[in-house]
Amino acid sequence: MTTNLPAIKAGLPSIIREIRTHNHGFSIFDHFTIGCGLAGYIDISYAELVDVLGEPGCGDEYKVEAEWELTDGIRGATIYNYCDGPSYGRSGGPVEHIRDWHIGGDSNSVQMIRELFPLHDVRTMR
User: Fold this and answer.
1) What is the pTM of this model?
2) Of 47, 56, 76, 116, whose Cβ has the fewest other Cβ atoms within 10 Å?
3) H or E stretch at 52
4) Where are the domains of the chain?
């Protein structure tokens, strides 16, 4: 199953047609079990992530409050907040105000996120 965005919004890369998320029953942990550590960061609004990927999963509701699991059928990645939301005791406001998101996976995961969000600052750990 692929995303169900109406007519693939103008300006979004074609990779979005191939993306499946946890909202489609995909679990990163069922498919990619090796090398799923912190691989990079993306500067993007919560609202834009929801617009493109759908509502996030809830993470562990302590260190991770919002998490998206996604794949293009070959590569897998997670986008999540870590230790910077209100459940962890940060006073920066709700998770909807976070802009600096973690990318989980490996270098291929970071490349997939770059392709998915070409207009955003995506940084690797290396």
Assistant:
1) 0.78
2) 47
3) helix 46-53
4) 34-124
